[in-house]
Amino acid sequence: MRSSRARVNGFRPNPGPIPCHERRSCDPGIAGIILGTTSLTIEQTLHRFSPPAAAFVRGLYAEHWDESAWLWERREGLREAGPLISTRQWAQSEARTEAHVHALFRGGTWVLEDAVARSTEATPGELHTLVRLGCRHGQRPIVERVLSEFEGESEKRSWAIREALLWDLPVAWHPWIKDRFEHGHLGEWAIETLAFVAGRRRFSLGRSLFERVKTSTNPTLVDALGRLWEPGAAELVWPYAQGEGSHALKRAVSLCVLRNDPLAARRLLQWAVETGQSWAATGFAMSVGTSGFSPLRRLSERIPHATEPWWALGMLGHTGAIPHLMTALSDDGARVAAADALYLLTGADLFEAFEEPDPDEPALIHVGKRLNTSPDAWDAWLRDRKAAFGEAGVRVRFGQPFDPRRTLQELRTTAVRSELRDHLVEELEVRYRVPIDVDARSRVNDRERGLQAVERMVLAQPKVPAGHWTLLGQPVG
Prior knowledge:
By secondary structure, the chain is mainly alpha-helical.
């Protein structure tokens, strides 16, 4: 049913989301069909109904199934398109999805059995819904089947399964995941998926992950190792950054080293920046002070159309970067990243509203904001405010002396584009040595809980004056 979607962003209010992976199993009276108890199949159940009633029930659950799958895929489409949809709109969409998934869950395992029967041809959104239901019903065979049969042939299908497990995998299954990782006969994609979930949930996979990374250059495994703060991880992975690996691998290596040994990482990343490697720029900016400005500026001049050096200049917070960034706004290949960096430094409210039809469903209108990249607009904004950014030796973020609480406040919005928000989260983890379990893909409620926890941990650390560069609680030059 698509007629109901001809509305702005396809979002409409719904009751708040229902807790997910805390739920362990369904009502015992309806459980068991997948595991072969005496519960009735969907056909047997509906056979007892009158034909109109059976048709209504089928249509109702088909609509829940269709809407849940469509909403997840719409979420991916909006993320890929890059419009700055508001946090409120994201929350409304997530609440709608949760309502449909919960309705399917309440339908019992006869609904789940029907879902399993058609999973072979499932779209990414349908696969996402199936895995969530399998987790909520405590049906490990469904997760086993997905891990065994789907090889992540598309990035969207991979994310559909990863996010379903991340959101709904019962905590009680963590030991089972560890066992499957160590002893299960799983393919590379399944191993990667389990490592992803373990890294984001921060539960240990033991030395088996460490041993796998010894012989694997998979960025997801390296990232998980870094998130789990495994001893010896930095020394193990750094050689991968010096070889011919992909950009994604080297980024994962830099974060793994930063999370486990930031002082050593600073030296290693400076070498990479000075030899013209863009992947090292943002990691370097997370670990240095004023001394990082000149190397990063030279890197941005050396490879002007790479995004990371410009973002790194904004993250560093050195006001000397502003004239250089203003010049970059005149370069078509650099202007978007330069505007992002200027926003990190100034917090200028230079966003432009836009409306555009969805390419797949023209009746669906996207409304959002984009950061202005016009040199004239930025010049006019800065003209009367230059004095606010002229004090030497003060680190700035969003127009104020740097304070981690201001970054946390910004992370609660969608003003900063998704990938850059992830860098800001990583920066807090590195500079303040706090575990952070949220990123730009996190659901709104999950992100809020995670950021509240981070704020408590950061504020519990020794007080550092605003505007200082710090690393591990100590000033850094």
